[in-house]
Amino acid sequence: MRVTEGMNFDSSRATIGQSRAKMNRLQEQAATTKRLLAPSDDPIAASKVLAIRTDKVNNEQFMMNARLAESFLENSESALSEISDLLVRAKEIALGQSSGASANPQTRLAVAEEVTQLYQQAVAAANRRIGDRYLFGGYKTTQAPFDLEGRYRGDDGQMMVEITKDVYLGMNVPGIDAFNTRPETAKKMSTGDSGSFRSPAGEGGPVVQNVNLFEELQALKGSLLSGDDAGIRATLEGFDDLHAKITSTRALLGSRMQGVSMATQSLERQNVTGAALSSTLEDADMAQVMSDLAREETVFRGALATSQKLIQPTLLDFLK
Amino acid sequence: MGIGNVMHIGRSGMTAARAGVSTAGHNISNANTEGYTRQKVHQASESPASKDMGKATVGTGTTVSRIDRVNNDYIDRQIRSTGRDLAHAEEREVILKQTEDIFNEMSGEGLNRLMSKFFNDFRKLSNEPENLALREAVRESAQAMINDFRRMKVQLGDVRSHVDARIENYVREANQISREISDLNTKIRQVEISGGSPNDILDKRDLALKKLGSIVDVSAYQNQDGAFMVDLRGLGPLVTGGDAEQFSTLRTSGSEDGKMDNTVDVFAGSNGGQPITSRLRTGKLGALIQTRDETISTLSNKMDAIAFELSRAVNEIHRMGYTRDGGTQVDFFRPIDSPRGAADQLMLSDAIRSNAGNIAAAGQPDAPADNRVALAIAGIQGLRIMDGGAGTIDDFFNSIISEVGVAANQNRSAVNQNRDIMTQLGKMREQVSGVSIDEETTQLMQYQHAFDASARVIRVADELMKTVLRLGE
Asked: Between chain A and chain B, how many beta carbons pairs sit less than 8 Å apart?
């Protein structure tokens, strides 16, 4: 085989060039700790990594949504628990004043004053808000849902939040549902079909009806003032029903909160799995990179050393 | 046979040795010349003159019969075809790298993130539809997303015009090389007619042919009349002996086979003629045209498709919603008629641009916390609206990224593969045609000795002559 100087130089050049290119690539990986620097490094992994990133960003948003829903639900729950307490007190009063034995017009007048207090407390709790947003007004969160007469001015809008992908959860309970045991009397004014888009959501129609929590309290107060024993007794059943209603609403809120925290946990788990997968796909195995680099350096030194041997003296050196 | 003949024999030896020394010198001096093929002196003994010495025949010296190039046509042809494929892949690599950079968001911002942000800002708005600041955030992130659509389209356009500039360059180069080959053909013909061997001109032509072959797919052969022909494969003769055809370029409108508007078309003939753009598929020109009309064009169309479907889907829902002030039937994006060029046309509608309060979040008027429309728009992220219901916008965009990656990745393998083959072929060619300094030095010495010895023959003949002359004294 004829071997010419040109071949020697060419192969030295090629080996050194290849070795340098490999070292350069490894050095990039070492410096960035990433295996995937451009989509062409691993096209399938690149698109997977992007999908995982989107999921991560979305999950973070879902977690924020969940926190918001949680605070909404917790605040609603505490308002309801307050109302529940004052219903217990109202029932005590009604019980105490319904039998003529322990009651007389003076005591009734005194407790009527307390009932007025309870009523005001109830309105305040029903008008509870977070920041500027009223909790129990349905979609009408910018105005107090109950006026001083206890008339409901909100609607029955159900605000949904996405707590995990495609899972929506109502974060509010409209006052018309929360404080009312006679939903059939709360007739809604139909607004017709308000839209055909694919969104899970409540009805949102305007409602004009008193809520019977306040009616009952008013009735108790009226009966106390007028000394109507039968009227006072009549409110007892109403308070029981209301108490049961509010308890069941609180149970609903509780189960929603549990749903939120489960969703949050599953999001956290997803994030961990996603991060692990994404790391396998795009992160360089540093131990591997460093050992590859060391090996490539040996190859490179070898190439340089052989080049020195290859560029050996020619016959001319001996023809002197 | 006279003593004069002995002198002649000596002289012929010296001439041949001088030719040998010259050729070895020529080879050494061209050891590093690109495309040079080593030359070899072929010597033959001169036919004997007469039989004046009884039965024995005395030779009459030597002659240089020819000086040849030592080459292997088969390897040269392979080098040409591999060189073409390598040039194709290398040219494509440059363009694909630029294209990949546009879509590379492996480390940093990119459309994928901006689209997620857009949808998540709608989610934020759905959490607190009463909040005007959140509407402004939605508008900002929509604008950032629109800007990135534009950026990608503009950069794709830049790559395209870069490709066009290179096409024009290569066409000029191909024209020039064709002329050069036809000139060389004429010179070679002249030398051959006068009986010489045009070795170095042949080398030049081989080199020119190699260069031309890396730009377009050509085949070279000799026709019946002995004229050297270069054919553009599948399209007919490019060089016929001393004549060369020319190409020309012109910007034309788009065509069905993927060519975009206002890009460069290649024509056969110096003054327009038949367009041959779509038939150039190999070599550097083919690489450029293929990358421009297939890869970049597809990517650009897909970006348009995303922009079109996104704006259509968002508008469809947004129009059903109610703004802060109770308005409805408001567009979010300015409506786009067709997917063609949609990514360039994507922009916010005037209503949204003038007032972020015109972003509709509610499904009914007079319901500040109604978030149904905002939720529904955020939900578009998960809807299969691309490709006739085959995938979500995210899926579709991610598949574009992996498409770019696959193209660049495959091409990189092609480059490496062809480079390896080329190295191997180069070695094979060097083995046959390369200049070895050692070998040439040996030749040099060999011919030097021959020269010395031939001179000696002349001196001996001279002495013989003197002896003969002294006989008469």
From this structure: 212
CA-nearest of B91, B97, B137 to B117 is B137
Q: Which backbone phi and psi does A169 adopt, to 5 degrees? A: -140, 135
Segment holding B265, helix H or strand E: strand B263-268
φ, ψ at A111 (rounded to 5°): -75, -25
Distance CA B430, CA B419 (A): 16
| pTM, rounded to two decimals | 0.83
Tokens 């959860």 map to which residue? A169
B32 touches chain A (CB under 8 A): yes
- Among residues B358, B295, B306, B304, which one has the least CA distance to residue B332? B358
- Two tokens at B37? 């093929």
User: What whole-number distance in Å separates Cα of residue B436 and Cα of residue B444?
Assistant: 12
Could A39 and B100 be called an inter-chain contact, meaning their C-beta atoms sit closer than 8 Å?
yes
The backbone region for B459, taken as left when phi is positive above 0, alpha when psi lies in -120 to 50, beta otherwise, is alpha
Min distance A88 CA to chain B CA atoms (Å) = 32
Instruction: Please name the residues in contact with A174: beta carbons below 8 A apart, sequence gap of 6 or more.
Output: A136, A137, A138, A154, A155, A156, A157, A158, A202
Instruction: Give the CA distances from residue B133 to residues A69, B129, B351, in Å, rounded to whole numbers and listed in that order.
Output: 20, 10, 17
Measured CA to CA, the distance from residue A251 to residue A261 in angstroms comes to 15
List Cβ neighbours of A45 (8 Å cut-off, separation of 6 or more).
Answer: A36, A281, A282
How many CB atoms are closer than 10 A to CB B26? Answer: 17
Q: ∠A177-A178-A181 over CA atoms, to 5°?
A: 70
* Longest distance between any two alpha carbons in chain B, whole Å: 146
Report the distance separating Cα B157 and Cα B147, nearest Å: 15
Residue with tokens 């008027």: B365
| Cα A160 off chain centre by | 11
- Half-sphere exposure in the Cβ direction for B210 (13 Å, CA): 20
Residue B42 tokens read as 């072929």
The reply to whether ipTM tops 0.90 is no
Residues pairing with A105 in the sheet:
none
Angle at A206 between CA A194 and CA A172, to 5 degrees: 90
pLDDT in tens, chain A (320 residues): 788 888 888 888 888 888 999 999 999 999 989 888 899 999 999 999 999 999 999 999 999 999 999 999 999 999 999 999 999 999 988 888 877 666 777 888 888 889 999 999 999 999 998 888 999 988 988 889 888 888 888 888 889 999 988 889 999 988 888 887 665 444 443 333 333 333 344 454 444 445 678 888 888 888 888 888 888 888 888 888 888 889 989 999 999 999 999 999 999 999 999 999 999 998 999 999 999 999 999 999 988 888 887 766 777 777 76
Give the position of tokens 């909404």. A72
What ranges in chain A are assigned the alpha helix state H? 5-32, 43-98, 105-126, 175-178, 212-226, 229-282, 286-310
CB-based contact A157 B370, cutoff 8 Å: yes
**Dist. CA B217–CA B232, nearest whole Å:** 6
Contact B431 A162 (CB under 8 A): no
CA A56 from chain centre, in angstroms, equals 13
Calculate how close chain A gets to B408, using CA atoms only, in Å.
Answer: 6
* A8 in B contact zone (CB under 8 Å): no
Tokens 């040439």, residue located: B440
Q: How far is B389 from chain A (nearest CA, A)?
A: 16
Angle of the B393-433 helix axis to the B73-103 helix axis, nearest 10? 150
Task: Please name the helix (run of DSSP H) or strand (run of DSSP E) that holds residue A205, with its range, or none.
Answer: none
